[in-house]
Design goal:
Helices cover 38% and strands 0% of the residues. With 140 residues, the chain is mainly α. It has a domain of 47 residues. The radius of gyration is 34 Å and the shape is flat. The protein starts with 30 loop residues before the first helix and ends with a helix.
Amino acid sequence: MAQIRRTDQLVPTQFKAGQSGNPGGRPKKTRLSDATREWLEDIDPKTGKTNAQIVAAAQGNMAKKVNTAAYNAIADCTEGKARQAVEVSGPEGDDIPVDLKLIDEEIAELLLEEGFTKNLRKPSRKKQKAPRSPTLAAQS
């Protein structure tokens, strides 16, 4: 038995070409973060301070007692986590040798043009000598 399509429920401009049907994407679930933010804003009736102020003071007191983890947590929150630079080198700090036989010639040329490494050698290509002009050839 053939299925009958109901076209009376379709909206002709429901989906436009080139546009996502869900531009915002799947909504992010932040229940824990939202609940924590609300709790931090709550005011403690005994002290009149927010929970955020109480937690920050407790963290600060722990840092004063030379608790390195507490100090690092404060620094990370206030200054942001420090970026770590990583340098890659060969043994004894030498450059890492690159075998151009393993690299496509076009990629190697691009790397050389952009100056990514000094150890790259240009792929061997025989250079053609520029033809001498007839006037220069006659003068020599």
